[in-house]
UniProtKB/TrEMBL annotation:
NCBIfam families: rSAM_link_UDG. Pfam families: Radical_SAM. Its cofactor is [4Fe-4S] cluster. Keywords: Iron, Iron-sulfur, Metal-binding, S-adenosyl-L-methionine. It comes from the Bacteria. This is Putative DNA modification/repair radical SAM protein. InterPro entries: Aldolase_TIM (IPR013785), DNA_rSAM_put (IPR023874), Elp3/MiaA/NifB-like_rSAM (IPR006638), Endo/Exo/Phosphatase_dom_1 (IPR051675), rSAM (IPR007197), rSAM_sf (IPR058240), RuvA_2-like (IPR010994). Residues 59-286 form the Elp3/MiaA/NifB-like radical SAM core domain. GO terms for molecular function: catalytic activity; iron-sulfur cluster binding; metal ion binding.
Length: 416
């Protein structure tokens, strides 16, 4: 293989990293270098949340250490049998790139993942060495997110948490059957074991820092994971239940969803077409309902089609749930508790909090609610206000056409 320069390696390994969705930079500890010591910051102008049109964060230098891999996961573009151009950075090259990009104000942190080279332990050692060198040799105080390798020695994975702000351990697929079929070299037990160890270390270190100021911080931004959507036969209901279990068992900050994308020379066991990107979006919305709107997993699953287990693509899960369980509506905006107002389609957390605060002083009218939402048409059938009671709307057998967004006009082909 011809020797590649740094620019060529960066082009290959930055492109290969685009399939990693879990690169948000929120939730870390506050650090800065305003006192003239160290390099970088995670506050103020430090981590800037710039997002690409597809929703992925681009404020970090997001690369793979290498796209070579000894594993042969069917869904992965970098699998062992894939016919892609390979490249590899040394740990020192990644350190120099990160510092150089930061000093030029291109990035505010590092997101580093890798294919498996040599062995899981060897690869994990290289990832940890990058973070160690940045922190100890260069006093880098910016954001670092490391993708860890569950098969690696637990001590190496633990070291990653000492240097990184956030660590990720990917569950890959939502079902154990899908993982065995598409990634037979990976083990659900080992993945979840590593996530459990990481959770324990985060909790123990958190307790220590409360008692001792000198206690080292450990993954202050927590851990996250990623699931591939559409590569196996898992339904949206399966994915929602799996995500809820992961949140409960491992205290994850985020579960990220990545729609499967067909790859060159794909295995015959993979779907021929990618799932709709809207499916990924609906799963993020369902995740939001569980995290911020107090929906139980079973309630989100109830919004899916009973026959297919899939969430509707034309309306969001919250509206789908409200249409399926109309007996819970309308809700009186002047009397209902906060948890019931959160169930109203079109009302977000901020809008509900403002309603609860405002009604302490006066009775709210429909116009008052309209000022807090983008679409009062979506809200109107589900609320009662001082001057509004949706009698006619409530009695309609088919309410969906009135509240569902209108489909966007599409350009037809000239030669169909």
């Amino acid at each position: 293989m011809a020797q590649l320069d740094t620019r060529e390696k960066l082009a290959i390994l930055a492109d290969a990293a685009k399939y990693d969705a879990s690169c948000a930079s929120s939730g870390t500890a506050k650090r800065n270098s305003r006192d003239g010591k160290g390099i970088g910051s995670t506050e103020g102008m430090g981590i800037c949340h710039a997002y690409a049109p597809d929703g992925r964060c681009i404020s970090l230098l997001k690369i793979l250490l290498t796209n070579s891999c000894i594993f042969d996961c069917h869904y992965c573009i970098n699998r062992k049998s894939s016919n892609v151009r390979r490249a590899r950075f040394t740990a020192d090259e990644v350190v120099r790139l990160t510092l150089s990009f930061y000093k030029r104000n291109y990035i505010e942190g590092l997101f580093l993942s890798s294919g498996i080279i040599g062995s899981s332990n060897y690869t994990m050692e290289q990832l940890v060495e990058v973070a160690r060198s940045l922190r100890e040799d260069h006093d880098f105080r910016g954001y670092i997110h490391l993708k860890t390798i569950p098969d690696a020695d637990p001590e190496l994975v633990h070291k990653a948490g000492l240097y990184a702000d956030r660590v990720s351990i990917n569950v890959e697929l939502p079902t154990s059957g899908g993982l065995k079929r598409l990634a037979p070299e990976k083990s659900e037990a080992r993945i979840e074991g590593a996530m459990g160890d990481m959770k324990s270390a985060i909790v123990e270190t958190g307790d220590a820092t409360k008692r001792f100021k000198s206690a080292p911080r450990f993954a202050p931004a927590g851990q996250s994971t990623q699931m591939i959507v559409g590569a196996d036969a898992a339904t949206d209901g399966d994915i929602v239940r799996k995500a809820s279990t992961l949140y409960d068992r491992f205290g994850l900050r985020r579960v990220y969803y990545s729609a499967f994308s067909p790859i060159p020379d794909a295995s015959a066991v993979l779907p021929l077409q990618r799932p709709p990107l809207m499916r990924e979006h609906r799963l993020y919305q369902s995740d939001w309902l569980m995290r911020f709107y107090d929906y139980q997993p079973a309630e989100v699953v109830a919004a899916a089609d009973p026959a297919t287990g899939m969430l509707p693509l034309d309306i969001d899960p919250k509206l789908a749930w409200a249409l399926r369980f109309r007996e819970h509506f309308p809700v009186d905006v002047n009397r209902a508790p906060r948890e019931r107002l959160l169930r109203v389609p079109g009302l977000g957390v901020k809008a509900v909090d403002r309603i609860v605060a405002a009604r302490r002083w006066r009775r709210l009218r429909l116009d008052d609610v309209a000022r807090l939402t983008v679409s009062i048409a979506k809200v109107r059938p589900f609320v009662i206000a001082e001057d509004w009671r949706p009698v006619a709307l409530t009695d309609r057998a088919e309410l969906k056409p009135l509240v569902a967004p209108r489909p966007k006009a599409q350009q037809m082909e000239l030669f169909g």
